[in-house]
Amino acid sequence: MSVTLLVNPACRAAQRRAGLAEQVRRALPGPYADATVVASRSLEDVTAIAAAARPDDVVVVLGGDGTLRAAALGASRSGSVIAPLPGGSGNDLCRHLGIPLDPVRAAQATASWTERPIDLGDVDGQAFLTIATLGFTAAINEQANRVHRRGPFIYVAAAVALLPRVRPTRVVHVIDGAATPVDAWMVSIAITSSQGGGILVAPGAEADDGLLDVVSYDARTWGGFVASLVATLLRRPIASRAVQHRRSRSLRLETLDPVPVYADGERVGTTPCTIRVRPGAVRLLGPAR
Q: CA distances (Å), 11 to each of 68, 239, 283, 286, in order?
């Protein structure tokens, strides 16, 4: 077994703290202590490095959800094992798995991690690890990606700026052959439970159940949507008519005009699109459940 510490130099934590990769490398314990540090040049490079690993290799990835998505795509091809360390703005995969949000503490914790398979989502051939989204949350991602400063607060700032201008989108969900039109303020298709740095949009989602959790905010009024959004942020119950929750292995999303679809903080396509789950496609090291 060989161990690679894969670092995306553009990752947010690497920008904040010089020498972070070396701190993380020194913190890796036991069988991971002799990791070779490799700096990627792009997300495509991240995928290629993970895809070139052998099935018994471990690729420790320091980066945000977009970097982890790129590594997971490569690992799904090679059969290598991914160990995720938080290095981005949201770090929602690490939050879902219970990984410490300090990358050095997370590296130290790998000594007790165990291997488990997790699912990989797919938007017309573009992989994702956490949540694919359209509508208000996609607009938040788009706005946040334009900001040079990073951290979970940027999602809150983007939401506050966009909220007065948000409007619902007519979305048709096609699940198991049945078409359901809704006027949705936002739609999330979840592998994991949160997005935007811990906003819990799909509390029942599991990364290894082979299902997509489809959550639509289709409150009829702007005020109703804001109330549902606030309830989500405060983790309080939401009226069933305001938020619809379905589960499926695949679905198709259609809109009157193409709208952007974001996943893991990156733009992955537009509607219409077909979203599927690839059960157990990625071998991952993480805290015991």
A: 11, 38, 22, 20
